[in-house]
Protein 1
Amino acid sequence: MSYDIYFLSRDEEQSWDDVLEAAEGAAEDSEPIPAELLEAWQRIVPQAHALLGDVDVTEHDQGSRDLSHSDTGRGRQRTISTGDR
C-alpha cells in the first residue's frame, strides 16, 4: 500500500477540481519545486525519521522528492511526494 500526499493551496473561490487540474498542469510543465515547499520538505523529513525510524529519501533533480518507509513484516510502503513524479 502506498500514499501520495500533495501540498496544494486553494483560494476560497477556487474548487478542489480546479486546484487538482492546475497541479496536474504544473507537473506536466516540469516546473521546479517552489521554495516554500522545499522548506516544508526540510521539516517533514526529520519528523518522518522520528516517527517511522529508518526511511529512504530520494531527490529527483528539482522536480520531486520521495520519502519511503517499508515495514519489513508487512511489505508496505508509504510515499510522500512533492512536485511532479
Protein 2
Amino acid sequence: MWSLDRDPSKSNGDLLAHVEDPLTPPSFILMERGVASPAVLKRAPKTFAARGALRGRPARGHLDRR
C-alpha cells in the first residue's frame, strides 16, 4: 500500500494497494478518502477454480503412530 502523492503535504489521503491471496487474483485497488468501498483498477486473470474442489479430513500420517 502506498500514497499516490509524492509530497505528503499535498496528499489528499488516497492510497493505492496491491492485494493478493491464494484464492483471488492479484489486484490494484484505489482507496479514496471518503469513499465507502475501494475501486478495482486492474485485476489479473483467475488462475484458481474452486468448482469441483472437495474438502475432506486429512489422512492420519505416519507421525501420528507411536
